[in-house]
Structure formats: C-alpha cells, structure tokens
Amino acid sequence: VQLVESGGGLVQPGGSLRLSCEASGFTFSAYGMDWVRRAPGKGLEWVSGINSRGTSTSYKDSVKGRFTISRDNAKNTLYLDMNSLKPEDTGVYYCSKDPDGVRGQGTQVTVSS
Q: How confident is the model at residue 28 (pLDDT cuts 50, 70, 90)?
C-alpha cells in the first residue's frame, strides 16, 4: 500500500487549497478512504470520509460546508477541496485507507496572514 499526498501550502485565511492523494498497491475502488490531520501540538483527528464508490461522504462538524471530499477511482486518487480556510485548519493532512488506517507521509497546510 502506498499513499502519496500533495497540494498543501501556505494560504491566507479565507483562501482555498486542493489536496490530492495518489494511491497504489491495492484496489483503491474497493475501500473507503478518509482525510485526517494533526494540528501543531495535538493528536490526530478525523476530518472527512468517503465510501468506496464515492456515493456517501461525512465531515467533522467544524469543516462542514467548507471542505469537500471526492475521489476518482479511474485515477486511483482521493481529493479534499478546502475553502474558507481558517488558522485552526493548520496542520499536516494525511489520507488514510479504511479500515486499517494506513496513511501516507502527509502534506502541510498552513493558514496564516
């Protein structure tokens, strides 16, 4: 299993980013996927999840209406569109494979003016 996240960066409050996660080494279309994050000095927290077919999604309350999770099973890629970013969204974002929780190396998101 290999998961490679990209798309992070430094953005001002109110800005947007699109994170991507390229998957390989397993049948991507057969598994639900999640985005999790680790804020500075804090533990890992779940952000959003999507089922294997992309027909059902769920979100942490604090990101509802701002973040959108999606997937392209033909490209073995998971996405997280993040809008109206806030400083409290700062952290390292990881994609995670269900149910075992295997994660990639993460991509840093910093929201700051």
A: very high
